[in-house]
Records
---
Amino acid sequence: MLKLSNIHTYYGNIQALKGIDIEVMEGEVISLIGANGAGKSTTLMTTSGIVPAKEGTVELNGKDITHTPPDEIVKMGVCQVPEGRRIFPYLTVAENLDMGAFLRQDKDEIKKDMDYVYSLFPILADRKNQPGGTLSGGEQQMLAISRALMSRPKVLLLDEPSLGLAPIIVKQIFSIIAKINQEQKTTIFIVEQNANLALKAAHRGYVMENGAITLTDTGENLLANEDVKKAYLGM
Ligand code: ATP
């Protein structure tokens, strides 16, 4: 569904991605793990067109989207949940969700999707008239994921969903991510520093170091890999 081939991405003259190749098949959950500054967020931003590649190609279902503007890429069904959530703090929970559906006209279906995200995260239904900025960090992450779902994405790009959250909330969020993948058949591409949970949740994973992919395998095999254990699982 998504294919990144020989991607080189720069910020000015700083090279963040040094020729990476990643494939995400329809229906898969893929995790990209790596240390701080490895280039994980840049990979997502290059995929969603926010920081386009200088060299290489990004394809969505065989169509070259390397230089397609980000809003067009959203319309094509690729939706990114940025690191740090970035919900609209002064809008209510329900208004934040409406913003996620701003490209859609199908009111009845929008209502159904809103009911669906409230069923995934009942706390959001309880808080629907409350400004987003008053939610806890975990609730804001739930809202950010839900807002993305309101665009009915084919591919959901999640940037560090665990960032700054308590372990119990992180577990809950990862179990909902699996549920979304299974129930909605949404393809999911996660970048994460929490290698353990990210690899457990993934069909396949990629390991990134200094802007390059150093390993790829099934989530299960990567969890059992001695180098991964030492470098990312603290074992
Ligand atoms: P983290 O887990 O800390 O978010 P990451 O793996 O997501 O890290 P990136 O944010 O993609 O890493 O950063 C990759 C490299 O690009 C780093 O060396 C970083 O300093 C650099 N970089 C990222 N954003 C910018 C920017 N806007 N301007 C200049 N350099 C940047």
---
Amino acid sequence: MEETVAVFDFGSQTAQLIARRIRELGVYCEIVRHDTSRDELLELGPAAIILSGGPSSVFEPRHPRMDRRILDMGVPVLGICYGMQLLAEIMGGTVERGEGGEYGPARIDVEDPIGIFKDMPSSLNVWMSHGDHVTKTPEGFRTLAGTPTCPIAAMADSGGKIYGIQFHPEVVHTPRGSDIIRNFLFNVASCRGGWTMGRFVDESVKRIKALVGNHNVICGLSGGVDSSVAAALINRAIGDRMKAIFVDNGLLRKGEVEEIRSMFTDDYPFNFQIVDAADLFLDELKGVVDPETKRKIIGKTFIDVFYDAASDVKGAKFLAQGTLYPDIIESRSANGGPSSTIKSHHNVGGLPEDLNFELLEPLKELFKDEVRLLGKELGLPSKLLARQPFPGPGLAVRIIGEVTRDDLAILREADLIMREEIESYDEKKEIWQFFAVLLPVKSVGVMGDERTYANVVALRAVTSLDAMTADWARIPYDVLGRISSRIINEVNGVNRVVYDISSKPPSTIEWE
Ligand code: XMP
């Protein structure tokens, strides 16, 4: 990468936001472990360094530190919150424990509008979130801004290269935060900017070529946005030496296998194979009712089928995945940083320990919306980039109880009707995800003069920003009515439709 900013991760939940803000300003950025050594950093050759905040205190005996020599490299540094306290500790200032801390909005008085505060008003609204604070600047540093409770809210060294700020410029509650980061990048660190997704493609292509050499790459393709964009990017770099493998587990929505086939053979062709393993998956799921057991069986069967297909590819050394940055922080605790692990997550359903491939994860520094931009840059069809999230275990977690071929056929038809009706109603795509669920319940109905005793279908539609929380979508009654009447009339075996009005939490989006 030509011009890179390194964000040292001290376990902040907002390290990703810092990276985001930097890229929005047209500068490429990578998040690195807080204990990255000077030599490792030299390889990256950063134009500037940002030290993130974090949950630790410099008073903890084993608090996360950094290689002291990095501060002598002459590269501009901005320490945020814990990053500022660590700078003060390392460079001989004083940090004190706050009484109760300071969390929320604050107003700082800018005493010295230089460097990061260039062209800023003398008073700024900022967001604070800290326990400890700096009470004496290191020698050669001066105070740039303060509040009555935090007199040293910003400091700079005499050379104007090292800055510390106690507040968080990366969050939206600091309205001029982006301008402060902009000043640091362009005024202090003389970055040139101009980074775009187009540059990301060029640089990634170079990196992938250099890493892969003459070897081949297998890519696990799910048909979702992330793995498709990863495959397209690798294809751009090494052409047919990447082979994408799509496992048809027989648990997809109606028409999806055909859609994926035509997408990657006609619309955006690359070396790609569909492995039809539907029978195997359905055999393995026979008689299984428990949701977790279903998920485990599907995960294990996927791995077996995928590795079987992958081992047929000669000279394959790398396994590519569409892992994103949020996946990494959820599973690996922020680049090995000290934040707490939220949940385990694997894109290919749990990789075996004795993996015979090296991992290739070209999207691992990006966020979901950045991946969509990248996909657009690569020319992927917009219908693919707009796809809804779809769970790895597919319709198996939308058929409550045992999964049978008959039930899959019923659910597919009902789900298709829901899709058709919602797609024509929700033109602005305000609904995050919608699908039908087949319940293991039969109810009595009457059709014509006949009594029926048939299945119940639940409709699920939610609005959400990130799937962590969700609310049920307020779909107009007449749209719901149309879906219900079409399902009952057109799908054999269903005589009742209900609408799920639960939010997440306490419910989840999927039913299993
Ligand atoms: P829940 O049901 O946990 O779902 O509220 C949150 C989001 O994750 C999707 N989901 C999955 N995605 N593998 C995936 O790749 C899975 O096993 C899985 N389970 C749930 C779900 O569709 C929703 O978007």
